[in-house]
Amino acid sequence: MERIHEPRPQVTFLKSSPGVGQLPPATLPEVAFIGRSNVGKSSLINALVQRKELAKTSGTPGKTQLINHFSVADRWYLVDLPGYGYAQVSQARRKQFEDLIWGYLERRSTLLVLLVLIDLRHPPLANDLEFLERVGTAGIPFAIVFTKADKLSASQREGALRRYHETLAQTWEPLPPTYVTSSETGYGIDTLWKYLTQLIQTHV
Ligand code: GTP
Ligand code: MG
User: Fold this and answer.
1) Which of 33, 36, 61, 167 could bond to 41 as cystine, CB 3.0-4.6 Å?
2) In whole numbers, what is the pLDDT of the chain averaged over residues?
3) What are 63-80's pLDDT values in tens digits?
4) Ligand 1 neighbours by CB, cut-off 6 Å
5) Which residue's CA lies nearest to atom 20 of ligand 1?
6) 167 has a pLDDT exceeding 70
């Protein structure tokens, strides 16, 4: 297993925003995390910055309901978003989440990259593929991060990745960048962290 060794800068919780009108001023570049509820967005943020309970996680879907900004060394932001596709809420509430997410995604001028998280254990799911298409159509720069790699063997992982690449190739040319991670074991975490810090460096 790959080990986490890169030192991390100071990361602090800045703000939870219930609506786009309450977001912190768009002054610093930011990296946002999205994906189905329970896919591991909050856990991935914690693994990336090596802080166990910075972002709140839960075994029950629908934990993150606000837009949460975390400041990295006062230079850039990590943004934890609510999940999509959570069935256990009313239609009206789901619409509220969708409006919040898209209100943010379509208007945030400082959004440098959106990480779309996908649970590697599942076959390509319609709502993930539809979400990706909408992100692409909106011209939002994104990368795909597969999560929970620890739940698969190396050969299962390869099979799952191949299947995803085949599916994605039907829509995307070139394929978007993909990363495979486990917040549980640290697998792929350093590689993803380096990708993000390099993006930030080339941006500023
Ligand atoms: P919402 O905020 O509800 O949308 O969920 P989320 O996407 O933020 O997921 P969260 O990080 O809260 O994790 C959901 C569950 O998955 C928790 O029980 C985590 O412990 C578990 N989990 C997250 N990442 C991993 C991983 O890499 N491996 C394993 N085995 N479990 C994980
Ligand atoms: Mg969460």
Assistant:
1) 33
2) 93
3) 778 999 999 999 999 999
4) 35, 37-43, 57-59, 61-64, 82-83, 147-148, 150-151, 182-184
5) 59
6) yes
Which residue has its alpha carbon closest to ligand 1 atom 16?
40
Q: Which pLDDT score is estimated for 22?
A: 96
Residue length of the chain = 204
How many other CB atoms are found less than 10 A from the CB of residue 182? 24
The ligand 1 atom nearest the CA atom of 39: 7
Tokens of 108: 């945030």
Task: List Cα–Cα distances, 120 to 12, 31, 166, 184, in angstroms.
Answer: 29, 21, 14, 14
Give me 123's structure tokens. Answer: 């076959």
**110 pLDDT higher than 60:** yes
Contacts of 47 (CB under 8 A, 6+ apart): 4, 181, 183, 186, 189
Ligand 2 center to 80 CA (angstroms): 7
Helix-, strand-, coil-residue percentages of the chain, each rounded to 5: 35, 20, 40
